[in-house]
Amino acid sequence: MVSLDFLDDVQWMNKRQLYYQVLNFGKIVSSALMLRKGLTVRTGSESPAVAVLSGSMERAFHRGDFLFLANRVEDHPVGVEEIVVFRIEGREVPIVHRVLKIHEKQNGRMKFLTKGGNSVVDDRGLYKQGQHWLEKNHAVRGARGFVPYVGIVAILMNDEPKFKCAVLFLLVHCE
Questions:
Q1: Dihedral through CA 35, CA 39, CA 42, CA 48, nearest 10?
Q2: Mapped to the 3 state alphabet, what secondary structure does the chain carry?
Q3: pLDDT tens-digit map of 79-93
Q4: CA-CA distances (angstroms) from residue 161 to 20, 21, 157, 166, 168?
């Protein structure tokens, strides 16, 4: 059952303190949304940044690294050794891996195979059953830069609800 003990604190606050807390929380949320929207406009990507969730790219990125992404220009071909972010049908979370091989057909269509830098085998085991190659429409965007370990906060907030509450509490109560 959800604890409503925080309502006792709200009851003892005067209206000015309550408005101040609500406005502080609003500033935090609006700042985060503005930052995200700014990155969206700057990179041309609806999802301008992601946190690395696993160690599969250990040679290039570590768990918790924060990647900045940019949409791929349609004319720009995907190259071998390029780091791409791709989505697989049926999986919600995008995957960040390196292009291992490219297979170009005579009609100009290109397919590619990916592999994590720390993985022993290619990603065919991750693809949809019966799928052996990714096509250009699977590549959502490419990694354009990163900040080491900053994304660990996002991972902790996602994995540990109590940590998320603590961070929000500190953001609202610290002036």
A1: -170
A2: CCCCCHHHHHHHCCHHHHHHHHHHHHHHHHHHHHHHHHHHHHHCCCCCEEECCCCCCCCCCCCCCEEEEEECCCCCCCCCCCEEEECCCCCCCCEEEEEEEEEECCCCCEEEEEECCCCCCCHHHCCCCCCCCEEHHHEEEEEEEEECCCCHHHHHHHHCHHHHHHHHHHHHHCC
A3: 888 888 888 877 777
A4: 25, 21, 6, 9, 11
> Would you give the distance in Å from CA 132 to the centre of its chain?
25
Residue 102: enclosing H or E segment and its boundaries? strand 95-104
- Interval 121-151: pLDDT, tens: 898 888 888 888 888 777 767 777 888 988 8
Task: Provide the H-helix boundaries in 103-159.
Answer: 152-159
Q: Rounded distance, CA 172 to CA 23, Å?
A: 9
Task: Residue count of the chain, please give it.
Answer: 175
Residues classed as catalytic:
56, 97, 123
Token pair of 173 as six digits: 């109560």
- Whether the full predicted model's pTM is greater than 0.85, yes or no, is no
Nearest in space to 87 (alpha carbons), one of 118, 144, 45: 45
